[in-house]
Write a structure and sequence with these properties.
The complex is a heterodimer of chains A (263) and B (252). By secondary structure, chain A is of the alpha/beta class. Chain A has 9 helices and 9 strands. In chain A, the strands form 2 sheets. A 6-stranded mixed beta sheet of chain A has the order 5-6-7-3-8-9, with helices on both faces. In chain A, helix 5 runs parallel beside helix 6. Chain A starts with 5 loop residues before the first strand and ends with a helix. In chain A, 43% of the residues are buried. Chain B is mostly helical. Helix content of chain B is 81%, strand content 0%. Chain B is built from 10 helices and no strands. Chain B starts with a helix and ends in a 6-residue tail after the last helix. Classes of the chains: A alpha/beta (263), B mainly alpha (252).
């Protein structure tokens, strides 16, 4: 059996000074298999982004162990993260933003442009390669963000609510777009969202988290066949049933989170 | 389009009309030519100053001091501002110094600077540099502090080496605010430079204005005022062009 691509064991993380200490993540344990698409769902402030940032190396856990892509050769970047809106550099053109990971690895300009080209085609922004982010719509910008992460060709992809700032129609289109790009590489993905429908449309498994401090409450396998269409899935009766059952699990947690916020 | 052209024509015509009116008023004796000479006599004086080579000499002296002083103030100001923007310990240590030194009218330091740097160009260059330095530090620091945290996250996520972090993320991110500081600095430098040249110089536009007043060559004084104004407009334009080239992502 191949070892898991991501193994999080008892991850705990607290923020703040003594007295006002907030435990964001408490004994969080989860393994993600190679090529698996796993979605973290939970109420706001449940530590799902913290978990993602720990895996990304942007935060360090107070305790617990983390293993990413064991035995991988280190030439490939370990991870690439797709951030929420504003993750693009406003001072770089589309091409330079997409090629950022390559540039930081010392890939020469010519080679960068060549490697980026198919991805620009894939996201349908080849025509906009010399545009700056502010000249693009929100949906286009997040397509650029996706391309930047895929071009870097990392062992695993991390996504932090990449479509949260988009309107419903654009979100649906971007989800399909993401699925299409992802089918081409089948990379391991850890995806944070607060949309149950989004998690159902994208993921192989959904990890439902508790309100603060964040723990794993339940893991729901999603076995819609792939390749999927995020839009068509929504017409599937099983989709609605799953959505409701996950909401039932989440409801108490959302109430708990609200009570914490109002306390 | 047509409306834009009409507006442009009006923008050129109205100052010309004002000049004509001024000339007319002078000719009719409505303005005392001893204090305010007519545009034509100023133009005459300007021509004489230009052909005798004096004007080029004075402009050259002022421009040299302005350029050297500006660069000597701006470059260290930007570097110090970036370090302060990135490191809150440095900021905590240096902020009070900047806050204390910034409000000093730099011209007040001119006598001291002349003691240290001599009566030549040195003291004028330094007084300009000092006026630019603090404004640049303050604006650059603000520009770096205001940088969205997410850019640093992205940079870290893609293992950005520190020199790339500086050149590709921090500097371009802070550049618009840095340029705002440079624009203000330019205006202040001109004021300070002319002031310094009034009292402590044998050359430069400030000297031309002051010495003309002392010898009651009022036309020459006006030539000096006009030249320093044009210098201000041109250097502002130059800075704007630099900004346009260096910050293309802000262009429409």
């Amino acid at each position: 059996m191949t070892p898991p691509k991501i193994r999080m064991q008892g991850l705990t993380k607290a923020f703040g000074e003594r007295g006002k200490r907030v435990v964001a993540l408490d004994d969080f344990t989860l393994s993600v298999a190679d090529g698996e698409f796993v979605c973290l769902v939970g109420p706001s402030g449940c530590g799902k982004t913290t978990a993602l940032r720990i895996v990304a190396g942007l935060e360090t856990a107070d305790s617990g162990t983390l293993e990413v892509a064991p035995g991988a050769d280190r030439k490939q970047p370990q991870n690439a993260m797709v951030f929420q809106e504003h993750g693009l550099f406003p001072w770089m053109t589309v091409v330079d933003n997409v090629a950022y990971g390559l540039e930081m690895r010392g890939v020469r300009k010519r080679a960068r442009r060549e490697q980026v080209e198919p991805f620009l085609e894939m996201i349908g922004l080849a025509r906009f390669r010399h545009h700056y982010p502010r000249q693009l719509s929100g949906g286009m910008r997040q397509r650029v963000s996706l391309a930047r992460a895929f071009v870097a060709d990392p062992e695993i992809l991390l996504m932090d609510e990449p479509f949260a700032a988009l309107d419903a129609q654009n979100t649906l289109m971007l989800q399909d777009e993401l699925l299409r790009i992802w089918e081409g590489s089948r990379k391991t993905v850890l995806y944070v969202t607060h949309g149950i429908d989004e998690a159902l449309a994208l993921g192989d498994r959904i990890v439902v988290m508790t309100a603060q401090p964040g723990r794993v409450k339940a893991i729901v396998p999603v076995d819609f066949p792939r390749p999927r269409s995020a839009a068509e899935l929504r017409g599937d009766p099983k989709f609605g049933a799953l959505q409701l059952s996950i909401w039932r699990m989440l409801e108490d947690e959302v109430r708990a989170a609200r009570a914490q916020a109002e306390a | 389009m047509r409306q834009a052209n009409q507006e442009r024509a009006l923008a050129i015509l109205s100052p010309l009309a004002a000049l004509a009116l001024w000339q007319l008023a002078s000719n009719m004796g409505l303005i005392d030519q001893r204090y305010v000479p007519s545009p034509l006599s100023i133009a005459n004086a300007g021509w004489d100053l230009a052909t005798s080579g004096q004007l080029v000499f004075h402009i050259g002296a002022s421009l040299r001091r302005l350029a050297i002083g500006f660069v000597l103030g701006a470059v260290p100001g930007i570097l110090a501002g970036i370090v302060m923007g990135l490191n809150r310990w440095v900021r905590a240590a240096v902020d009070p110094l900047v806050a204390a030194l910034y409000p000093i009218p730099k011209l007040a330091l001119l006598p001291l600077l002349m003691l240290v740097f001599g009566i030549g160009d040195g003291s004028k260059v330094v007084v300009v540099a000092m006026s630019v330095l603090f404004l640049t530090i303050i604006n650059t620091t603000a520009g770096v502090v205001q940088l969205d945290r997410i850019y640093f996250d992205v940079a870290r996520n893609y293992h950005t080496p520190w020199h790339k972090l500086f050149l590709r993320v921090i500097l371009p991110g802070a550049l618009p605010t840095i340029f705002a500081g440079l624009r203000i600095s330019l205006g202040v430098s001109l004021v300070v430079l002319v002031g310094a040249e009034f009292v402590a110089s044998r050359s430069g536009i400030g000297y031309l204005i002051w010495s003309s007043w002392e010898t009651l060559m009022i036309e020459n004084m006006f030539v000096g005022i006009i030249v320093i104004t044009v210098l201000g407009v041109l250097s502002t334009f130059f800075l704007q062009e630099c900004e346009r080239l260096l910050i293309p992502w802000r262009r429409d």
